Structures
1.
Amino acid sequence: MTALLPLLSGLGTGLALIVAIGVQNTYLLRLAVSARLRVVAVAVVVCAVSDGVLILAGVLGVGVVVERFPVAIVVIRFVGAAFLLTYGVLAARRALRPSGDTMRVEQDAHDDGAPVLDAGGRQVTIAPAGGHRAPVHAGATSGAGRDAADAVAATTRPAEAAGRTRTVPPGRPAPTMRAAVLTMLVFTWANPHVYLDTLVFLGSVANQQGVDDRWWWTIGAVAASCLWFGALGFGGRLLRPLFAKPLTWRVFDGLVALVMLGFGAALALGA
C-alpha cells in the first residue's frame, strides 16, 4: 500500500504531461493508420524507451546539468523549429494538393489482416502466395469484372512473390521503417520541451518523493508513457477504414500542418 500511492502518483503525472496534442503524438497516429504493424510497433518502442530514458536521467539528476547549460537547449530549439516548420509545410501541401486517391498500406502476408483497398475504397481479396486468386470484393461476374480481377492479380503478383500485399492502385505511400524511426527520433529528441518537462520537471518531482518512494513514482511515470504510446499506436489502427477516404487524409494533413507549424513557430519565437 505504501508503494501504491507514489506509483499511482507517477502514473497520473506522466499521463497529464503526454496525453495532449503534440508533434510526437500526431506523428505516431499518422503511422498507426498508414504504416505496417512492425513499423508502428517499433515507433511505439522508440517513444516509450526515449521517455523512460529521459525520466530516469531526470531522477538521477541530469536535469541539473541541462539547467546549467542553457545554450544546448537553444541549439535544440532552433533545430527542432526548423524541422517542425518544414514538416508542417509538407503536410499543408499534402492537404491542399493530395497526391493519391486512397491510403496505401504495405504489410507482411502474416500481418494483422488489414483490408486491401482499391481506388474506390472497396476491399480487394488477395490469395496468399502459391494459392488461388480470389475475386474482387464487389463480385466479378461480368467480363469487365473478370478483366478487373485479372488486373488486380497482375498488379499484386510481384508483391505476392515477395510475401507482401499492397493497396491497388498505389496512392499515398506508407512510411518505411527507416524513415519512421528517424522522424520519430527527431520529433522526440529535437524538442527542447521534452528536456524541460521530463528531465527537469519530472526529475524534480520524483526526487521530492523521498529516497525509497521516488523509484516507485518513476516506475509509474514510465508506465504512463508505455500505456499511452501503446494505446495510441495500436488503437489508432482501428481508424484505418476511415482513412481509406481521400477527404479524411486531407483533413488530417491539415490538422497536422496546424500542429507542426504552431509548435515550430512557438519554438522559433522561444515560447
Note: The chain has a mean pLDDT of 74.
2.
Amino acid sequence: MLDDKNNTMKNGQDNRNLSDVFKELQEIRYSSANQVTTSSKPKANKQDRPKAKVSFIDSNDISFDNKKGVKLSNLIIVFVILVLVIIAIFPMNVFSVETGNTTEDSEEVVETASIPTNFEINRRALNMQKIISENSSFEKVKEQVSEEREIEYEIQTRQNPTLPRGEQVVLQEGAVGKENVSLVKTYENGEFTEEIILAKETIVEPTPQILDIGTSDFLADLNIHIGDTVYLNKTSTLRKEASEDAEEVAEIQNYIDVTLLELPSEDWCKVSFDTIEGYLPTDVLTSSSKTPSIIERNRIQRILMNVNIEMELNKSTGLTLKDYQKIFTDLPNDTNGIFEENAEVFYNMDKKYNVNGIFIASIAIHESAWGTSQIAEDKNNLFGYGSYDETPYESSYEFDSYADGIETVTKSLVKYYLNPAGTKIYDGETASAWYYNGPTVEGVNQRYASDPDWHTKVYSYMEMLYNRLS
C-alpha cells in the first residue's frame, strides 16, 4: 500500500489534503499490525516479534515544478510523512501483541497499544482564572512632577582642648536648605514604588552646625570648666610661666581656692589667686565635685590665712557656732571649764556687735589667767574691768555672771576702742572713739593696757585658738 502511495505522488497527484495523508499513514500502521496478528504461528516472544516493513519515499521521485518552484504545501506534506514513518518504526509505546479470543465466526482480534491509566495529579496546577483576573486589574502609572524639598545640613566638629573630654558645645546652630527637584514617580496599583530624579535646583543653601568636642582629661576628671573655682590639694608655688624653673609669684596654702583662667596644656594651667595671676601644675588642684570636703576646709583655711597681728578686729570672724564650740572644747588650761561653758556667748558677741569674738576671749584668758584670778572667781569679771594699778581688786567691777561681764566689755571696746568716731554700732548708737588708735591689737594696747607688750601676749592666745580649727 505504501508503494501505491508513492506511485500516486509520482503521477503528480499532489493536491491531497492533510486528512488524506493521516488516513493513509494510519492504514500503514494497521497493515503492519495485521501482519503480526494473522500469522499462524504461536504468540511470538518480545525478542522474535517481526518488525513492520516500511518503504520510504524516495525523495528523488518527488516532482517539482522548476518553473513555479517548490510548493510550500508539498514540503510540509513530505515532512509530516517522514515524521509519522519514524514513529511507526520506533513506536513510543510498547505494543502488547496477543491472540485474543475469537468470535463465533473465528475472527482474529487485533490488540492495539495499551495506554497507561494511572496519572499523577498535578497539585500545583496554575489557577489561570486567578492569574488573568489579577493581571487584568494591574495598573502602573508614571508621572513627572516638581517638588520643593529640604536639604539636610551637615554637622562640622572640631576638637577643643579647653573642654572636658566628650563634652559638646554648639558654636553655630544648623539650618536646613531648600531645593526644587524635578523627578518621575512610579505608582503601581495606586501605591508609590520608586522615583527617578531628573534635576535639582538649590533655592536656599543649608547652614552647617558647628560643634566643639572637648578633649581635656584634666577638666573631665575634676568635672570643671574654664572660669570655675578649683582648690589646692597641697601648698604650692604660683609661677610667672608654665615651668618649674619660672619665677615665683606667690605661695598658696593648702585648701585655698583659685580661679581657673586658661589651660595651655594638660600639665599646667593659668589661675587667679586674689587678683594675682600665675601658673600652677594641674596635679596640685582638685574640685568640690571630686573632693566634696574641700569647701569646708577652704572656708577654715581662708579664715586662718587672714589671722595676723595686723588683722582688723572690728569685723566678724566669719566663724560658726560649731567653730566656736570646737575651739573652746577641751582646752587644756581651762581647768574650771569657764571658756567652754561660754563658747556660745563669745559667738553671740561676734555676730551681735560685729567684732572679733576670738579677740574678746583672748583678752579674757590673758587678764584672768584662764579664769583663775581672784577677781574672776569672786566678781565674774574675766577682764579686770574697772581696775586701776593701785587698787586692782577694789576698783574692778562685779557682774552677775560671766556672760554679763563679757557683753559689757565687748560693748565698751566697740564704742571706745575699735571703731572710728561716728561709726554706727549697736542700738542706734555711734562710736565715740575716745580711745581709738586703730582696729588692731596694737592699737587697742595704746590706751587699754599699761603693758607695752600686752598686744603680743593677747595675739598669741588668738593664734592658739584659731589653730584649733585646723
Note: Residues 18-37 form the longest helix (20 residues).
